[in-house]
Amino acid sequence: MNNENKLKGRDLINIGIYGAIYFVILFAVAMLGMIPIFLPLLSVLVPILGGIPFMLFLTKVKKPGMIFIFAMIMGILMLLTGMGPWPLLTCAIAGILAELCFKSGEYKSAKKAVLSYGLFSMWIFGNYLPLFTDYEGYFAQRADYGQAYIDAVQKLMPLWMAPVLLVACFVCGLLGGLLGRALLKKHFVKAGLA
Amino acid sequence: MAYSAELAQEKRRGLLDPRTKLALVLLLAVFVLGGLGGEQVKPIKTVLSALPFLLLLAERQWRRFGRGVLLLIVGYGLLWIMPRLPSALGFLALLCGGILTRFVVTVVMGEYLIATTSVSEFISAMERLHMPQAITIPMSVMFRLFPTIGAEWRSIRRAMRMRGIHLGGTKAGQVLEYQLVPMMTSTVRIGEELSASALTRGLGAPIKRTNICRIGFRVQDYVLLTGCLFTIFVWIMELCGVKLW
User: Which of A75-84, B31-40, B71-80, B99-108 is the least confident region?
Assistant: First the structure.
């Protein structure tokens, strides 16, 4: 029993494959966040689009630990792309929650999979955290973007946006999960991938 | 006894140890891109920013060096021209310039890491750092796949463009379904083949793998790592409120 639940090379490689797809989509969308209006919208776009690879990933998850490792790797990549240490923390928390949720469905419940992706998506909030924990400092660091940029972002991101963004991540995660499931049924099952 | 394969490996050995490269990427990501540290760290940041370009030159990666410098020039050019433009255009120029000057350095460093490190070198460096396999295997698969995904995506975009499925085309609404889905399908296929090949070569096997790559710290590594520690030291001193210069 214990041996069966241990992660093998193939599982780890699967994490890498789907992690790479997820990260490429995340990165492509995050580039939009440079335009101020898209900065809060990232918490909508990333969970929805990321749902497609993540739902596909969940069809390969049969053992405990895979979702958590996936989340931690996202955290490490965020550190390497200069988002600071906060995402590591939110990734750990969201990863554990998503893991527990999917585990309670015995790694096959479709409803639990969607819910699990919603919980997982909450890690994205970690990218916003430096903005809210250190409001002044965040804008001081970005002074070279110009005053117009800072004004625009400050108007879009008042402090009360913090809980809104967190909820948006979760809700859009659910939507993304549903979208992922729909595409899964329509394309990937036919192609023999899911 | 030296085997010819070992000698070839020695010849191909890069300038730096992968661990040094990783430390530099991390340092650049946190200080230059993440913008940590204030006035005291600023002179060091300038030195840090020049580092990836020097490394690319030292490894004779002319094209990557040229591209990086070009982007940097464009970025500073935009910042320079900004005050002379009407306000809407100026804002755009400032934004693009700000992004370019901020990102290019770290991107170039990341490119240097990926271009000059083979997957085997990366794995053996990670093993020496005692990183668990649960992290190193997915990471090395990812680094291997990024360029592949890029290439696949470009080809698929070109194919779909012919049928009018692209942003601004007649069927822009279908972009998501007919560009993302094929991209993912082919990436997963490629990934599965990659995984079969890696497993045959014993990746993830319960025993310790051996590796022909020569890695290890040399003088240049020690110099750069001391530089890294010094940067962190200056930053901590600044946090404590000590004036160094």
Answer: B31-40
**Dist CA A194 CA A152 (whole Å):** 43
What fold is seen in the domain A2-188? Arp2/3 complex 21 kDa subunit ARPC3 (1.10.1760)
Contacts of B74 (CB under 8 A, 6+ apart): B100
Average pLDDT, chain A: 86
In angstroms, rounded to a whole number, what is the distance separating the alpha carbons of residues A72 and A94?
A: 10
pLDDT at A1: 41
3-state percent breakdown (helix, strand, coil) of chain B, nearest 5 = 75, 0, 25
All residues of chain B having their beta carbon less than 8 Å from the beta carbon of residue A35 are 95
Of B35, B134, B187, the CB nearest to A17: B187
| ipTM given for this complex | 0.83
Strands (DSSP E) contained in A42-143 are none
High-pLDDT (> 70) share of chain A, %? 95
C-alpha dist (Å) from residue B125 to A14, B16, B65, B191? 22, 11, 25, 23
Asked if A111 reaches chain B (Cβ–Cβ under 8 Å), the answer is: no
Distance CA B152, CA B125 (A): 29
Say whether B145 and A16 touch across the interface (CB within 8 A). yes
Please report, for chain A, the start and end positions of each structural domain, with discontinuous segments joined by +.
Answer: 2-188
**Taking a contact as any Cβ pair under 8 Å apart, which residues of chain A between 56 and 95 contact chain B?**
56, 65, 69-70, 72-73, 76-77, 79-84
pTM: 0.86
Q: Model confidence over B165-187: pLDDT tens digits?
A: 777 766 666 777 888 888 988 99
- Is the pLDDT at B8 greater than 90? The verdict is no
| Yes or no, beta carbons of A35 and B140 under 8 Å apart | no
